[in-house]
Design brief:
With 288 residues, the chain is of the alpha/beta class. It has a single domain, classed as 3-Layer(aba) Sandwich (Rossmann fold). The chain has nine helices and ten strands.
Length: 288
Amino acid sequence: MRGAAVSDRCAFRLFKSARIRYNRFRRDKRKRKCKRMNKYFTINAGGCSIRCKLYAEGNADVRKVILFGHGFGGHKDNKAAERFALRVLEKNRGVALVTFDWPCHGDDARKALRLEDCDAYLRLVLDHLRERFDSPELYAYATSFGGYLFLKYISEHGSPFVKTALRCPAVNMYELLTEVIMHEDELERVQKGKPALVGFDRKIAVDRDLLDSLREADLQQRSFLDYADDLLILHGVKDELIPISVVRAFAEENVIEFEAVEGADHRFQKPAAMDHANARILAFFDLR
């Protein structure tokens, strides 16, 4: 009996070791594939130079394009976007995903963050995608500050997207920035008329003009009822930056489909939570 138990343990260790090696092989294979299918490009138009990243198997047969909007202080090399792109391209043909740097983010050269510049960047990227891919169906996936900017664009220009999925959108962006992201001394500096460097991956210069524009462009005071059928909001129950109650109230007010994701924080760092979100968004986009 003892010999059999030892043999079973050895077999289990061998199986576990083989499984780890196989998973590592699959992960490395996906990374190599990702490097082959992504491409950096720059849109130079309207006095702007917008750094972008394309995930696609090729340009010729692209019929659907998903535009991804990153959060405050983020950049186009967003890991969540890459993970979603891999999932999309693994099982779907004729689909591409594009990310880009918002003004003052990533490799962008601008020094002052302005909402009107964000609006212009989004419009120019959309124009480029329509021309490059011969008027494809456009879908949107945005998170946090990116979600705020996509919603703001929709409320002011109408929706250019077939469907829009938002993960932890910062519908309360002014409060998020002034009460959560910024430190007290940074806020005091801005209130005295001086800019403060704020953020995560890249520090963003925040000044009084930006705060005033965010206060005025309060999405919680705008109606999205006309676009509700084509909107989906996923929010982490454990979001440490944006209270789920705020976003749930926004969704209910506008009759937007809303799902609270158990175990998820603001960035959906748990793989199971992110996998669930990606699967939910794929289904919403009628993709596999």
